[in-house]
TrEMBL record:
InterPro entries: ClpP/crotonase-like_dom_sf (IPR029045), ECH_dom (IPR045004), HIBYL-CoA-H (IPR032259). Keywords: Hydrolase, Isomerase. CDD domains: crotonase-like. This is 3-hydroxyisobutyryl-CoA hydrolase. It is an enzyme of class 3 (hydrolase). Residues 15-335 form the Enoyl-CoA hydratase/isomerase domain. It holds the Pfam family ECH_2. The lineage of its organism: Bacteria, Bacillati, Actinomycetota, Actinomycetes, Mycobacteriales.
Amino acid sequence: MAENEDILVSVRNGVGVVTLNRPKAINSLNDVMVDGLQTALTTWENDDAVRSVLLTGAGERGLCAGGDVVALYHSAKGDGSYARKFWWDEYRLNAHIGRYRKPYIALMDGIVMGGGVGVAAHGNVRVVTDKTKMGMPEVGIGFIPDVGGTYLLSRTPGLLGLHAALTGAPFSGADAIALGFADHFVPHERLADFAEAVVTDGHEDALNSYAEEPPASELLAQREWIDTCYARETVADIVDDLRRQETEAADAAAHLIGTRSPIALAVTLTAVRRAAHLHTLEEVLQQEFRVSVASAKSHDFVEGIRAQLVDKDRNPQWSPATLDLCDDAAVDAYFASAHPDLTF
């Protein structure tokens, strides 16, 4: 199978090994990587000589920092066609991973954000470490959690998923397991040996040899105030309730939410709540595709990426500027049917 500089694909002892290979960009996904992974999975799914798939990332910083949003920024400033095609292909890949018939072992070490969650957390064997830094930080760039993220965020214990979605804050490997984003914990220092054992002995023996009990989840321990605050009707109500809590963590969450795009926050709250009532990952990805296509036409998507990753002034000028200016009609417009709708 052909290799290229952005994604490395091989078969070793019956294991299809995929390495995301853009370490300088923390393996941020581009269209070549999405297409390469999709092609590999399709080929291996019907190949009896391949018994499982192992996904990893090159470099020391993490599996994948997300999608290549600078490319999406330039597309959004133009006609948006690249962004629409990228999301179409990416979300179809996420769905494929979610229903993959063979063991799909994802090594979620280091930074795993956004699109990195999409290519890893829908797999059926999801491994985190003590170095894992996971999150869905989209509201910080005027975007809304996607890649099936709202499916996972809507199915966490209590309202931990809404907390993760609206703050955009990273969480640990132990938290990822507690939230349902991961299954197994392997210490970082043993991960390379674990990966080799997957190839030589199979993933079940490797897990038996290397997986350990995860540390306690800090997020799970805070569920009482999280469930109370995030049950409020609007984002503004949630922030008000967070500020009334007598905990440093709640106050920090309120401050963080206050730095995010108001319209992205309002749409995210609705998206996660709607996703809870959808039955399949595919249905949620369909909703996310509509929302993402609408986001690409928004002011805040372009402005958020500009401020964080292009000009890097870290001073986005959101529009609308405050939550009270985000009316129901503006939020509902994000969920209008895309043309064409995503198909699987």
